[in-house]
Amino acid sequence: MHIPDGFLSPKTYIPAYVIASGLWIYGIKKMKKELEDKTVPFLSVMAAFSFVISLIMVPIPGGSSGHAVGIGLLSVIFGYWTAFIVLSVVFFLQAVMFGDGGITTFPVNAVIMGFVGGITSYYVYRFLRKINNTFALFLAGYMGLLISAFFTAVVLGIQPYIAHNKDGNPLFFPFDLSITVPAVLVPHLFIGIGEGILTVVGWNIYRRIYDGKD
Amino acid sequence: MMEKIKGLLYICGIFTFTFFHNIYLYILLIFFLFVLSGKEFIPIVKKTLFSITIFSSVVTASYVFINGFDWQYITLVNVRVFGITFMTFLFIKRVNLFKLFSFSENLMFIIVLSYSQILTFQKYLTDFRFALKSRTILKPDFSDRYNFFKRIVEFFMKSSLDRSKEINMAMKSRGFYTDE
Predict the structure, then answer these.
(1) Is B59 exposed, middle or buried (0-12, 13-18, 19+ CB in 10 A)?
(2) Cα separation of B38 and B129, whole Å?
(3) pLDDT, tens digit (0-9, with 9 covering 90-100), for B113-139
(4) What gap in Å lies between CA A146 and CA A120, rounded to an integer?
(5) pTM score, two decimals?
């Protein structure tokens, strides 16, 4: 889902930086208030955790496997602000150090996957946990990724409308919403299963480590 | 100071690649970046191509399939994508990222610590993969793969939470925080 540099117009990445900056400032303040001097080590290590989790193939029933990002897991355990800040650090390092994503697409990825995805996972879990905890966790991970994928498709799909030359030809990403929404969403209907499984497994492990129950 | 000037030039480069839509300007800029890369030209080109090939190829092939061969658009987008990515990798080679963020102690620590932890975790993950490979002759079935996945997640989660506490104590003991 990571978009490389060069496909998003300045009309997209400049406002994205403005929005992301505001969210980063508020999110870090909130984290500092909760974690105090533990913020820096916690944030750094959880960023490494999230990074390595994204490299692990999650086995999906049926013989296949998919990559997860850890949006749902981080969000349901630590809250969506922490998830957003941690994932922002991951996306930044992926863009500059590992060549995955890009510096112009970094704020878009951070806001969409980190914030929108995180907030979706958090509230899906909050609303559904009383019905069935495992189902709520799975759906939190699944929906967090699916909603992120939808917004990514929207950001890509609006490029031909907002950035084109005099003849109407696109200057950045060429396909409109009618193509990007199904093209991005359909594979993520499947990939989301991996994210859901990771959220359930990760949550149970976290509880076993810290609460002494499963 | 030098790092910050390079950072500013990098931002100007990003703006040039995204505000202007002229293939010849891009080629000129890329040629200039090639010269600047010196001996690191080939490794950076390889890294750039590795990073952009899949996404760019899918977009280009789909565009040709849907809209026909519009060489101007295809060249413009692909040269731009290559140019920005090459410039980013060159920037990372030439600039000490940790120094660039030295204006904020916390930000610098987060980047240094995250990066070092990522490298350590990546090594562990490679070791785990080799361990599974060396212990299985046939392709592991779903339950084996699921158990392997669960154990890895457990290991990394436990390590992360423990390391977070250890690093915090190490930082405290070295006087990184001043008591109010």
Answers:
(1) buried
(2) 37
(3) 898 999 999 999 999 999 988 888 888
(4) 10
(5) 0.89
Amino acid at A153: A
Detail the DSSP E strand segments found in chain A.
57-60, 64-67
Cβ(A145)–Cβ(A197) below 8 Å: no
Q: Does B101 touch chain A (CB under 8 A)?
A: no
B positions 108-167 inside 8 Å of A (CB): 109-115, 117-118, 120-122, 124-125, 142, 145-146, 149-150, 152-154, 156-158, 160-161, 163-165, 167
Helices (H), A36-132: 39-53, 71-78, 80-96, 106-109, 117-128
Q: For B66-108, write each residue's pLDDT tens digit.
A: 888 888 899 999 999 999 999 999 998 888 877 787 777 778 8
Contact criterion met (CB < 8 Å) for B88 and A48 = no
The single-letter DSSP state of residue A113 is: I
B76 Cβ partners below 8 Å, 6+ apart? A171, B21, B23, B26
- ipTM metric: 0.85
The residues spanned by each domain of chain B are 2-99, 102-173
